[in-house]
Amino acid sequence: MTRLQPGFYLSVLITLLFLVQTVFGILRYSDLSCSDFVPRNVDSGNDNGQDYAQYYGSSRFGEGGSWASRYRIRNRYGKKLVQKKRSIGGLGEGYSNEPPYKISVTGRRYRRNSDLLVRIEGGDFDGLMVQSRVVAGDDVLRGGVGLIGQFRYLPYLFEYSPCFNLPFATVIDKGRPVKLGNVSFIWTAPDAEAGDIRFIASVLRGIHYWIIVSNVLSFNPFPISTYACGSSMACFRVCPYGAYPCTAAEALLIFSYGVDFRDKSEITFTLGGRLHHNRTYIAVAFGDDLSKLVQADMTVCYLERGRARMEHLLIENLQLPPYQHNEVIDLDDFDVDGKMLWCKFRRPINPSTIINPRTSLYHFYFSGNIDYQYQRFVLPSRDRIYHSAFKRNFSHAFNEIVSGARVLSSEILSFFACFVLVKLMD
């Protein structure tokens, strides 16, 4: 009996692999997958890239519904060989009604220009496509305009796909004949609010692929945007020494609100500041008296057991502790980013109170300590309280920046700009 050489088995294996590839082709993701997340047969001889993958997923990318499969096989000439639909229960042993992969994201909200770690977990796979998309109403996708943000620092075996002419919002594998698995990406949020978003991935293994989605991530409004400061917003911020002008994220203390009151019955305020320790509070006050803050209206925000608290107080003068105000101010939203505390609150527009668009008042900004033994807020000395350059009413947009001991308002900056221009023309 003739004994077959080991090379014979290798030749048979290579021949079988060649025949399988000739019939089935190779599945890969490309720009043709941008809308439907379906891998295509790149060796089908058809420029349209025919798909022949078996799909495991729900009718709405993992949002409820019965799990089903779509099995499409085409030969190299594009002729359909097999097409059948059946429930997941008929797929045979080894498959369950849950995808073997998942997307994990660090955090439940995203900030402007901030980074999130997006990780695909669940074992080995052969191909991958990942996108970040806007959630529009009850739909996961919103067409090509739904792409949002950009991926950065890709692993070597991955590259960008220019879906919908957005070159950094979609990631696919390079198509190398290697096993992939448990891969992470850095995703950077845009510099503007985009509403709710989620990450969607299509994971390929053999001739099977799964479309998986992450949890919905809501927008975190902190740090605030300073683009509209001085036009449609009133803004004040304290910048560190040598950092002028600073961003909202770099500021030591910041306060802002919108000045367009048309068809509105209240004003939304945002207060942010650095906490030096767990007894620090941040505050804003409004009043007529510049030197002693007599009867100034004071709003305080602080942390207690990891949650922000808000108090409404009345300053009789700087020599006395502030008193509890009979008008309650509710905290709408808050966030803690390292040592930075952000608080958002609303106050109704009322001509009989200080929240009156026609009343001009000084604005005071400061931080201080909480005396928990006597349950009171300790006011700082007058030289540690920042104040607006002029009296303001709440319909006046401004952009004041404190750098060291200087108060630089939009009006002062405009005055100096005109002065320098006149000197240059002399």
TrEMBL record:
> Does the keyword rRNA-binding belong to this entry?
no
Give the UniProt subcellular location, in the record's own words.
Membrane
> Which keywords, in A-to-Z order, does the entry hold?
Iron, Signal
Where does the record locate the signal sequence feature? 1-25
Q: What is its main location?
A: membrane
Q: Which organism is it from?
A: Folsomia candida
In this protein, which residues make up the domain named DOMON? 251-368
Superkingdom classification of source? Eukaryota
Membrane topology type, per the record?
A: Multi-pass membrane protein
* Annotated Gene3D superfamilies: Reeler domain
Cofactor(s) in the UniProt record: heme b
Can you supply one Gene Ontology CC term for this chain's record?
A: membrane
Q: Does the keyword Signal apply?
A: yes
Query: Which InterPro entries does the UniProt entry name for this protein?
Result: DOMON_domain, Reeler_dom, Reeler_sf
Q: What is this protein called?
A: Ferric-chelate reductase 1
